Amino acid sequence: MADPAKPGDPARPDALVVGAGLAGLSCAAFLADAGLRVHVLESSSVAGGRARSWADPTTGHSVDIGPHVLLNKYPNMLALLERLGTADQICWQTDHLLTVLDKHRPIRFKQARLPPPLQYINNLGRVLPTVPLHRLLTNIPLTLRTMRSNPADILRLDDRTGLEHLRANGVSQAFIDWFWASVAMAFINVPVERCSAASMMRVFAQALGHNDVTFGFPMIGLSDLYVPQTIERIERAGGRVRLDSPVAWLLREGERIRGVKLADGESILADQVVLAVPPTGMEPLLTESDRLSGVARQFEPSPYISCYLWFDRKLTDARFWARPWSPKEFNTDFYDLSNIRNADTGVGSMIATNIIWSHRANDMSDEAIIQATLEEISDFVPHVKEAHLLASVVHRIPMSVPCAKPGIETLRPATTAMPGVYLAGDWIDTGLPFCMESAVRSAALAAEAVLHSRGRPVSLALPVPTPGGLSRLVSRRGN
């Protein structure tokens, strides 16, 4: 067993970060840039966590754990990529917002340069064949109420489901099925009848106030966006990223945490410890008496399945299209990476897809999932049936994000967990949905807290999106 390094020992890190996912590596990089020597401890053999990529063993092409999308209104992730020098590796879809395949009819949604939330009015003619005007109009009272709400108003909706809130505000079932069911699944990864109304309406409130939202897609593997760059910064400042180093428990001195003990018995001391692990990984690190242990147990994973398919020919010029959510179908979003990536993706189209809230596919074989995916691709690209499928792979991911069920927003913990311990991860209280932006903002908040405890106050976290246009004029200010 290694002896723990004592204060003043050059081998002793200034801070420890447990977890080498997006939040952990970002936090460690922020601290390293501030001159701290940080050790990052990761239980698995690879860094990147739920935002990683690797070379597919069959094709050799880079595949992500699952397709991820960036938003131009989320500044923390973009600022991180600027800091790391990879911001130019995002392909921004600026010609239109998105394409939705609705009953075999592709609808290209565009934003008009009108004061928010009027930016979508130019899509009315495209939508009316599917949803009659009187059904669409039932969403207006809810929209006005949301525009007038401040964050505290929205948080108070955490005691009910999204579906309950929509019905209470008079939204028609037809519009719920067509619009809200897909919004909940796409942004919350939980069905509308199960998700927190607060989680769902916060996304809606933030989206209402902008007429220039743009989706971005990584042109390289997710890991290549940030993993080697953050590790280089950490090591340059004298720190380390240690893989295959699971933490068994926290070392305590009275009420304060003084370090960690690894599963192999090694003890590592540090004045500050950042826990950058998902809630499902918190319990082994904590005792029953720790309030955080009980909080973490309330967070459940939302699973998903991603498919990658390689074809012998180009199938489409589209980068991305979506399908309305239906429990009777599977994939909700599709990406032709041959129109996005700047590296080799094969001789034809390389298509990635997501099955969100994937319980309905748990008992299906990989082959059956691929066949169902091919059928759903053919709805958008009928001539896929003439193409030859060269290779395919199915990724089954236990957790995309935590489930935003009723009550969970109120439970999201603050950055400072206990003396000497700070939290980072998308599940922390960041004012954002569970996503990469939340992970990076939490990392910045944790780095701020660590530096503040060392007498070095600094501002790293950028604010959450605030509404503009008419939304800004009618919204109630305050928390």
From TrEMBL:
Database matches in InterPro entries: Amino_oxidase (IPR002937), FAD/NAD-bd_sf (IPR036188), Zeta_carotene_desat/Oxidored (IPR050464)
One Pfam family hit: Amino_oxidase
Domain Amine oxidase: 22-451
Molecular function terms, GO-annotated: oxidoreductase activity
Top-level taxonomic group: Bacteria
Name of the protein in its database record: 15-cis-phytoene desaturase
Source taxonomy: Bacteria, Pseudomonadati, Pseudomonadota, Gammaproteobacteria, Pseudomonadales
